[in-house]
Amino acid sequence: MSRGLYNMGLLHGADYNYEQWLDSPELLDRDLLYMREAGINVLAVGIFSWSILESTEGVYNFEWLDGCFERLHQNGQKIILATPSGSKPAWLSEKYGETCRMAANGVRQPHGGRHNHCRTSVKYREACVRINTKLAERYGTHPALILWHVSNEYNGMPCYCPQCLAVFRDWLKDRYVTLDALNAAWYTTFWSHRFTSWEQIFPADHSIHGLMLDWQRFTSDQTIDFFLAECEPLRRITPGVPITTNFQMPDVGLDFHKFARHVDIISWDNYPEWHRSPDDEPAAVKAGFFHDLCRSYLHKPFLMMESSPGATNWQGVSSKKKKGMHILSSVQAVAHGSDSVQYFQWRQSRGGEEKFHDAVITHLGSNDTGIFREVAETGRLLKKISTIAGTNTESRAAVVYDFQSGWALDNAQLPRNIEKNYQKECIAHYGAFWKAGISCDVISPEYTDFDRYKLIVFPMLYMLREETAKKIRMFVQKGGAAVATFLTGLVNESDLCYLGGTPGNLTCVFGISVEETGTIADWETVTFQMYGQQWKAAHYADHVRLQGAQALSGFAAEKNPAVTACKFGEGTAYYLCARTEQAFTDRFYRELCEKHGIPPCVSWEIPAGVSIQKRGDAIFVMNFNSVETVISPGEIYEDMLRGEPVCGTILLPPYGVCILVKSSSGEKKSEHQSNSK
Ligand code: GLA
Ligand code: ZN
Fold this sequence. Notes:
By secondary structure, this protein is an alpha/beta fold.
C-alpha cells in the first residue's frame, strides 16, 4: 500500500518561525523535545525570513537556517522550505520603489504588512530569483528537505503600476489581436465606451464587465507567471524536490483550477469557524467542500499546510475548540484526502499582528496545556492510520465550482443583487451529498474530464463557456445526469448575454428556455409541491417555458415549472428554477443519486450532523454534533483507532470520530493491525 509522500505516512507538522527565537536557545532546545512528544515529523521554515536571510542587498546570513536544518534533521524531522517572497525587507522597498504595489489612483502602497508586492516588477522578480537560487544551492541536497513551499498565500489584489498595465495590454493584444475584436467582446458600443488605442484601456471601469473580467483573469495569470518565475531556479537546481504553494479559501481573486496545473502537490490553509453557532454542521460542510475542491484540483491527495491548533485572532469571534473538535477537524482533512495535518504555527509569536493567535506552544511555554495534549493526541492518531496516506477517493458525483464565473457574477447587475451567494449555493448543493454520505468532487468546468462522473451539478454557472456547453451536451448525450439551476448559462466567456434563450447553447439539452430571471422579495413566500410535500423557494425563481422537458413540479401561485427534467440522448438534464430550501435540495439529490446508481459509502443510516467519508478502504465516521450520537453499522468492521473489531452499534462521543475498515478479509485486517501501533 502507498505510504504517501516521501514514504512517511501521514505528515504532522507546523510552520516553524525559528528565527523569532534565536535569542532564546533554551526555548529552541525545548522545541525539539516537545516536537518529538507531539509526533511532529515535518516543519515549514523560512516563510517570512527574508529580512534575516538577506539583511541588506547581497549580504546573506544563512547560519541560523543551517542550524535549524541540522537540529531538526538530528531530531528526526523533515523540512518544507519556503521561499520568502510573501514579505519583502524594508531595504528592498526603499531601494526599488517599483516593487511596491500601486493603487488605481497612481499612489504606491507604503512598505509594510505582507503580500504587498507588484507581481510584474522586474526588480522584484530578480530579487526573488536571487534569494531562491541561494536557498536552492545551499539546501537543495539536504537530506531533511522534502518540499518547496513557494511564497505564502498568493492573492489576487490588483496592482495598477505602469509595468502591470503594459503587460496587461500585451495580454489583451494576445487575446484579441485587434481593437475591433476587443470592442466587440466588451460590447463597448454601450455608453460610448469604444476604445481607439490600447493605451486608453484602464482596468478600473466596473461598467465594462468584459474589461473587469479580463483584468481579474490577467491578475490571476500574472500571479501564476510570478510563481513560475520563482520556481525557475528551484526546478533547475533541485529538479527532484517537488513544489507546492499554500492555496487559501477560494475567494481571493485567483483561479486556483488554473494555478493547480503548475504545482506538484496541492496544499491549502484551512480555518473553519467552529462553534460560531450551536450547530457545527454548516461549518463542517463548508470545510468538506474546500477539502474536496483541493482533492479534485489534481484528483490526488493534498496537504493541509495550515490550520489553527486552537483559536485564530482574525475571525470576528474565534471560539476555543470544544473537547474533541481539534482531532475531529484534523481527521476531517485526512478523510477528504489530506496527507497531512499541519498548523500555523509551532510557537506563538511574542510580538506582531499574530501574537494572540494560538499555536502548539503558547506563551505559557509549556506542554501541559489542552492545546498541546490535543495536538499530541492527533500525532498518535495519525500514526495509527498512516496506511491511509497516498490513498484516494473515487467520486461518481461532482459539483462544478468556477472561479471566473463567480467573478463575472459578482460584477453583474441583476434584478436581485443582494445575496447572490454563488459560493454558498455551490456549498448548499454539495451539502446534500455530504449529508447522504456520497463522495462528491468539486470540479472545474474547463479542466476536469466529465466522463468519470454519473451526475454533475452546475449551480448558478452564470458564465458558461461555449466549450463547457459542448461538454455538458456530450456528457448528457452519453448517459450522464446534469443538474443546472437558475442563473446558469446567462453569458458567454466574454460576459455577453446568450441570445435566443438560456441556459445558453443548452436549451435543447435541458428542454427549457428561461423567459425571465424572476426575483423573490424577502417578505414573499413562494412554494412548490414535490415528493408529496410543500417546499419553499427564495431569492430567485426563473420563469421557464417547456420545450421538451417535463415539469416535475410547479410553483404554487403561478403554475409555471419549478423543477424540470429532460431526456436527451442517453441521459437526463434537470433544471432547478429557484433557490430551494436546504431540506428540498437534500432530498432531491438523495433521490437523484438513487435513480442514477450512485450509492452512499455505507448502507446504514447516517444520523444528522454525522459525516461519512470513504478514502481508500477506510470509512471515516465523524460526529459534528455536540451530543453523543449512535450509529448502527450492522456489519463487522475493524476499528483502526482502537485496533479491534466492532459490530452492532457504536456510540460516538460529542465531536467524536471513528475510522473503520471492512473486516471481511483477514489480509486487510492484519495489515491494519500491524500498522496501528
Ligand atoms: C494564514 C497565513 C499565516 C498566518 C495564518 C493565521 O494562513 O498563511 O502566515 O497568518 O493565516 O491564521
Ligand atoms: Zn505592478
